Amino acid sequence: MSQSPSPSGPNGRSAGGQFGPGNKAGKGNPFAKRVAKLRSALFRAVTPADLTEVVRVLVSSAKSGDVAATKELLQRLLGPPVELDFIERMAALEKQLAEVQQRGSSW
Prior knowledge:
Order of helices and strands: HHHH
Helix content: 55-70%
Largest sheet: none
Radius of gyration: 27 Å
Strand content: under 5%
Distance between the termini: 48 Å
Structural class: mainly alpha
Shape: flat
Oligomer: single chain
């Protein structure tokens, strides 16, 4: 059974590189429409006052010593933690590389 090439080109892409008409892979995420509806319902259901209340509870829990609440709050405000020992790890790797090179070994 032979397939005819996509009308958008031999590789199924348009001139701009996007999936062209007839390309089976260009249908997108089958769940995107459902997720969009759920997200829309969530935005309609949660008011700015609701969100403010939730954040106040999160802050209060963090202040009371709830480690999970503290982590969540800090990650939302500052982003995920960055490893601070990067320079030390790089120095250790460079030392190992120098030792391997002195022995004449290769990777």
